[in-house]
Amino acid sequence: MAPSTSSTVTLNINGEKHTLSVDHRTTLLDALRERLDLTGTKKGCDQGQCGACTVLVEGRRTVSCLQLAVAAEGREITTVEGVAEGGRLHPVQQAFLDLDGFQCGYCTPGQICSAVAVIEEHAAGWPSAVTDDVRPEAGPPPLTPEEIRERMSGNLCRCGAYTPIAEAVARAAAQARTGAEEAAA
Ligand code: FES
Ligand code: FES
What we know:
Elements lengths: L5 E8 L2 E8 L4 H8 L18 E4 L2 E4 L12 E3 L12 H8 L9 H16 L21 H7 L10 H23 L1
Parallel strand pairs: 1-5
Antiparallel strand pairs: 1-2, 3-4, 3-5
Helix pairs in contact: 2-5, 3-5
C-alpha cells in the first residue's frame, strides 16, 4: 500500500483549535488562508523573502510560507486576527493606524506580527546585528531607529512606508515600556 500523503492535524490558532486533513506539503500559510479562511496573513513571495506571511509561533516570528502545517501541530499560533486584546486593538495596531504606518496595506499584517515580537524580543534583552554592546550585563540596547530598522528588516514594504512603520514600532515600544514600569511600581 502506498504511504499516505496526508494527515489530520489540530492547529491551535489564536486560542482556538482547528482540526483538518492536510496534504503533507501544505504550508502553514496555505492552511491558514485556503483551508481556514484566515486571510489576514498575506502571501507575497511564497519563498521566505518578503515577510508578508509572518505569524507568531510560540511567540516567535515565523514566515508561514516556509513552515509546513503538519510541523505546526500542537504549537501556539497567533495571526494578525489574534493580536488584538479583547475588543481593543493591540498597541502596535493602534500605532500603525495613528501614524499611517501603511499605504496599500498588503505587508501590514506581517509588519504588525513582526513588530509585536520585536518589542518583546528587545524587552527581553535580545541583541540585534547592529547592537554595539552585546554583553549580557549591558542590558537591552536603546531601541534606536537603527535598531528598529534592523529588527524589522525581514519585512519588506513595496510602498516604501518604512518611515512611519519605524515610528509606529517606536511608539508602541515606548507604550509597552511605560506599561511595564507602571505595573512594576
Ligand atoms: S510570502 Fe512568506 S516570506 Fe514572502
Ligand atoms: S503598505 Fe503597501 S506593501 Fe507595505
